[in-house]
Specification:
single chain, 233 residues, alpha/beta, Rossmann fold, 6 helices, 10 strands, 29% helix, binds adenosine-5'-diphosphate, binds magnesium ion
Amino acid sequence: MSSKRVVTINNLNHAFGKGELRKPVLFDVDLDILAGEIVIMTGPSGSGKTTLLTLIGGLRSIQSGSVKILGQELYGASKNELVKVRNQIGFIFQSHNLLSCLTAEQNVRMSLRLHQDIPFEQRSAMTTHILEAVGLEDRLNFYPDNLSGGQQQRVAIARALVSQPQLVLADEPTAALDSKSGRNIVEIMQQLAKEQGCTILLVTHDNRILDIADRIVDMEDGRLARDTALVSG
Ligand code: ADP
Ligand code: MG
């Protein structure tokens, strides 16, 4: 495993609201994630996990502290720089956010629109390949409404991974699934990550999937309370 840092966070603080209503939610967060690592973040509801993920993903501006993603400092970054960083990240959310008017294949292919450098035929091949990898080769032309929850979430994973992002941010991707489908989903993510060498930061409450991680970090009241390396087996 290379020791290249994909995520470097120093002294990050964040608050919502202004004046009387100002509510600090992140305190002095420091976190380093190396290339190829799978890090699981746990912690009670309201502890700041989603806020941290959106800051790392360049979806919210940094108020104080330093967040470096793939070599780009996000504090004070321009809109253009933020867009470039976002394009290198695969996002997977709790609810899959698929477009219901598009088929599985079209939903996945759409995320390659951002990558104009990839030739058209190659985009088709990449789309088909990733949908095969998540076991949906016989569902390419299905609309989301005709897929199960687990299948919809697999389309969302395919959509996040099709462009072979260096970093994947997943916010409770198994929350809406039964435990067997949930396990299946994270195993697919783990396998694709190993194949593509990407780094994963995954937020979950699901104790049954912790073993796929290289490291587990616990968030408590806006602070990183514990950082535990797992011996991989
Ligand atoms: P978690 O993902 O761990 O459940 P969040 O990051 O969603 O926690 O929330 C952390 C705290 O920030 C909570 O107290 C929540 O109410 C508050 N919060 C989250 N998003 C917003 C927002 N957009 N505006 C105001 N407060 C927010
Ligand atoms: Mg959350």
